[in-house]
Amino acid sequence: MNTNSFNRRRDPSPHETNQMVFGIRAVIEAIKSGKEIENLYIQRGLTGGIILELRSLLKENDIAFQLVPVEKLNRLIPKNHQGAVAFISPITYEEIENIIPAIYERGEVPLILLLDGITDVRNFGAIARTAECAGVHALIVPAKGSAQINPDAVKTSAGALYRVPVCRHDNLFKTAKYLQESGLQLVACTEKTNDYLYKPNYTVPTAVILGSEENGISIDLIRIADHLAKIPMFGEIESLNVSVSAGVLLYEAVRQKMTSK
Fold first, then answer.
1. Strand, helix or coil at 84?
2. Which of 76, 84, 81 is nearest to 53 (CA)?
3. Helix segments in 88-184, DSSP class H
4. For residue 184, which of 74, 112, 123, 176 sits 20 to 30 Å off, Cα-Cα?
5. pLDDT tens, position by position, 38-54
6. Distance from C-alpha of 226 to C-alpha of 105, rounded to nearest angstrom
7. Do residues 193 and 232 lie in contact, with contact meaning Cβ atoms separated by under 8 Å?
8. CA neighbor of 20 nearest in space, from 92, 86, 75
9. CB within 8 A of 232, min separation 6: which ones?
10. Is the distance from CB of 2 to CB of 94 less than 8 angstroms?
């Protein structure tokens, strides 16, 4: 399995505290030094040469950001943020286009987990922990609308986020199509089907899709999925926690792989 290397962090500067970088110049330097930007907030309405330099750098590196009122930045950091606050990711993101060929080259059967809109940090960490234990090769998350990968997520994952590659992509639909073109079937875990999770054959290259408890999987991904699979429910509560659902489905894949040997 591919493993992420630990990021070697320099001693914190006066502008870097607890995975946070603030100040326009400090954010620029963080990007130039190769730091992975988890979230970036820029004050709405800023002008001037240095902000243009930052915007150009963001475009060049395809880094997403949010324009926010100054009040939000003031809540994040009471110090002189100069209109820019960034959160640094504790991991290095990877490209799924590099991971899939490497899995095949090693003679392994890909098992990928695509997370559509999982925003709770602890759920995300718990899913990562289960994924690592189940032999998942990579996690795929959207660039926007996903849980922040912060120290709390890493702790909840028991360090699994350092071991399972995480890929962040702007368009999950295009990424899912790439997976299909690479020979993976898409199995979407959803209650909008009569088929149970036991029906798909997980011994072949597979990408399992999980959605948020609130919104589920986006309709575009549902439409292109090769299989829709639901978990049988016998109680009065209509759904499981998404991290529990991940465990149930992934270990069905593990069971099938073990019994097929």
1. strand
2. 84
3. 96-105, 121-133, 151-156, 172-181
4. 123
5. 889 999 998 888 999 99
6. 24
7. no
8. 86
9. 196
10. yes
